[in-house]
Specification:
The chain is mainly β. The chain has four helices and 24 strands. The protein starts with a strand and ends in a 6-residue tail after the last strand. The relative contact order is 0.13.
Length: about 350
């Protein structure tokens, strides 16, 4: 069994791999499939490494209970792509949940960093740092940690699974149940079974949406529920909006019941917004630090000092990306102190803070 780990109020959690499950009985002409045995809608990607060249492809959306072919079965010339890719190649896979669930984005991660893009992407040189030292972010890409795929036999299938051990059929039901919970129905139990209450709730939702009322769970039902969940989630969290002409690097501090966590650095482009806290705001105060930088990464200075947003609450940070749990003895633990600004939630599930030159310290 794998490990299911939640990181409390940080709003980030990780599902470990529960194994690379290789299906039996298929022919060698089949492509490489990723199957979703979780109760979450997943975005997935694959990397194929041939010698020193790594090629990443994605995003492949997979509804619970479904499978998606991510390497097709034909390249022409009498050889299947499966056969071509198997010859001395290595494979890596990654998946994460859609950002519509309480608890933040869940990830299936490994130890191999590669670059990914937004939307549909096919990156021929996806290594995290290319030969001239340029990393993913400097190329306008994101870096994520892939897991090596243990592929063998005639059918290549990697199954993403939860600790609950859903079958594909139960995962489909559990996926609908979870989206109904995200929509606000707290009476539904996410168990993957078509109980009476679950089916009554599904049919009531279908009627409200002018959909065909049926017992089967369709892709259309997932799509409509996903849109509904996205609408609800859009109003949650702490959003920082950069109205300056510069890039802004930001960090956030979140005080939970058991721990005080700081997290950074998150870059916000000029004119863009970024949610640094994605869940509904449950604390009275959140803490942010941000500073504007030029093209060389140096902090912008004006006549009255640096273009930065800070406050009097001293919290732990470090120069590179970080997640720091506990804010005592920062220096002794190899961190630095930085003053963070308190942001009051005022009982609202979501708020937006504007980072402008007029709002800086």
């Amino acid at each position: 069994m794998g490990i299911f780990l939640r990181l409390g109020s940080l709003g980030v959690w990780v599902i470990s791999f529960l194994g690379m499950l290789v299906a039996q009985g298929a022919t060698a002409q089949g492509g490489y499939r990723l199957c979703n045995e979780t109760s979450y809608v997943l975005k997935s990607a694959i990397v194929v490494v041939d010698g020193g060249l790594a090629r990443s492809r994605g995003w492949f959306d997979i509804f619970p209970g479904d499978c998606r072919e991510v390497l097709p079965d034909s390249l022409g010339g009498g050889l299947s792509e499966n056969e071509v890719y198997r010859e001395g190649k290595r494979y890596y896979v990654y998946a994460r949940t859609f950002d519509v669930y309480h608890g933040g984005v869940g990830q299936f991660v490994g130890e191999h960093p590669f670059c990914v893009g937004e939307g549909s992407f096919d990156i021929e040189n996806a290594v995290a740092i290319v030969g001239d030292g340029v990393n993913c972010s400097q190329r306008g890409l994101e870096v994520v940690s892939f897991r090596a795929a243990d592929v063998d036999g005639d059918d290549w299938t990697t199954n993403f699974a939860e600790a609950e051990g859903y079958s594909l059929q139960r995962a489909k039901v559990a996926g609908i149940q979870r989206l109904l919970v995200e929509r606000g129905n707290r009476k539904i139990r996410v168990d993957g079974y078509k109980g009476r209450y679950t089916m009554r709730t599904i049919k009531a939702f279908q009627r409200v949406q002018d959909m065909a009322v049926e017992d089967s769970i369709s892709e259309a039902l997932f799509e409509v529920l996903l849109i509904e969940a996205e609408k609800i989630r859009s109003d949650y969290g702490l959003k920082l909006c950069n109205t300056t002409q510069y890039q802004v690097w930001s960090a956030v501090g979140i005080e939970g019941e058991d721990n005080f966590i700081t997290r950074g650095w998150m870059m916000i482009e000029p004119g863009d917004c970024l949610k640094v806290v994605r869940d509904s705001l449950g604390q009275d105060n959140y803490y942010i630090f941000a500073e504007a930088v030029d093209e060389q990464g140096l902090v912008i200075h004006g006549e009255d000092g640096p273009l930065a947003w800070w406050g009097e609450r001293s919290l732990c940070v470090k120069p590179t990306r970080f997640i720091i749990r506990g804010q005592d003895n920062c220096l002794a633990r190899g961190f630095e102190y930085q003053g963070f600004r308190a942001v009051e939630s005022k009982g609202k599930p979501g708020i937006t803070m504007t980072l402008s030159e007029g709002s800086k310290n």
